[in-house]
Design brief:
The protein is an alpha+beta fold. The protein has one domain. It is built from one helix and six strands, in the order E-E-E-E-E-E-H. Strands 1-2 form a two-stranded antiparallel ribbon. The chain is globular. The relative contact order is 0.21. The mean pLDDT is 82.
Length: 69
């Protein structure tokens, strides 16, 4: 599956569309996560490089020093 020319096949867990009367149609993408820490003082979310690229394409800015290239 492609989203705006970007292959998101390996990053999606689920995709849902919602269409209602007098409402803008919406699509919800559930992204696959590798790991979520439970340390409240230093929370960390780990995604694959493919998912990272998709998130950046969608407008996400990775935190400084996240260690990814």
């Amino acid at each position: 599956m492609e989203l705006d020319g970007v292959d998101v096949t390996r990053c999606l867990k689920a995709l849902a569309f919602q269409i209602g009367v007098d409402q803008e149609p919406t699509a919800t993408l559930d992204i696959v996560l590798w790991d979520v820490s439970t340390d409240a003082e230093n929370p960390r979310l780990v995604v694959s490089e493919d998912c990272r690229k998709v998130l950046i394409h969608l407008g996400w800015t990775p935190p400084e020093g996240d260690g990814a290239s």
